[in-house]
C-alpha cells in the first residue's frame, strides 16, 4: 500500500505527458508549420522562460500562497542588469550577481510582509507587481532598451552547447535542483506540510513563517534568472517584456498538478505544464488568432486544470446532471 501511495504522482505525470503528445498531434494537424525544426526551436526557447519561473514559483502555492509579481520582477531584472553592465560599466558577472541579490531582496520583502504583517499574499504580490513595474518604467524612462554587449551576457540567451540552446540547460538544471529540493530535503517536506496543515506543521516543530519567506525568495530568484535570460535572448530590456507571464506560470503549475490551496505540487508536472502553455500560445499564433484571444484560451486551460486537479470527472458530472434530470422528470 505504501509503495502505491508513494507513486501516486507518477500516473498523473504520465497522463500529462500523454495529453502533451495529443496536443502536439492536434496542432500538427491544424498547421503544417507546427512540427518544423525552426518552430519547435522557437517554442522551446520561449518555454524556457516559463519553465525557469515555474521551478521556483511552485513553492508559493505549495505553501498556501501566490506570487503575482514574477512577471514584473523578470522585466525589472533585465533592466537592472543592463544598467549595471552598460551604464555603470560593471563586470557582467558582478552585475548579474547583484541583480540576483536584488531579486532575493524583493522575495524576502514579499515574504516578510506576508508572514509578519499577516497581509494576504495575493495583495502583497499584486502590490509588488505594481511597484516593480513602476521601478522598471522609472529606471528605463519607459524606453525599450537594446542590449548589444557584453558578448558573454548575450551568449546566455542565444548561445548553444552541443547544438542545444543554453536556456534549455538552465531550465533543466533549475528543474532538477527544484525537484530535489522539494522531494528530498527538509525544506521541501516542510513546505508541503505548511501548505497542507499549518497547525499540524507547527506542532511538528516547523516554522511556517520562515518556510513561506524562503518560498517567496526562491520564487523571486527564479523570476530574476528568467528576466536575465529573457534580456539576453531578446537583446532588449523593457518594462513590458514579461507582461502577463505570471498567468502563464500559474497555468503551467496548475496544469502540472500543483494545488492552489497548498500542500501538493510537482516540479516535473509544472515543466510539462509549461511546455503545454508554450504549445497552446504557439498554436494560437500559427492560426493567426488576435492576441486578445490568448488570455481567454489560457484562462480556460486554468479552469479545466483546476477541475481536473479536484479529481472530478466531467463524465461523472454529466451523469449526475442526467440522473437528476431524469429523477425530476419521473417525479413530475
What do these coordinates show?
With 332 residues, the protein is mostly helical. The protein has a single domain, classed as ABC transporter involved in vitamin B12 uptake, BtuC, CATH 1.10.3470. The protein has 16 helices and 4 strands. The strands form 2 sheets. Strands 1-4 form a two-stranded antiparallel sheet. It is globular, with a radius of gyration of 21 Å.
List keywords for this structure.
mainly alpha; two-stranded antiparallel ribbon; 4 strands; single chain; disordered N terminus; globular; 16 helices; ABC transporter involved in vitamin B12 uptake, BtuC; 332 residues
Question: Quick gist of this model?
Answer:
By secondary structure, the protein is mainly alpha-helical. Helix content is 76%, strand content 2%.
Give the overall pLDDT as a whole number: 87
How does the overall form come out from the CA principal axes? globular
Helix- and strand-based class? Answer: mainly alpha
**Number of beta strands:** 4
Strand order of the largest sheet: 1-4
Architecture (CATH level 2) name: Orthogonal Bundle
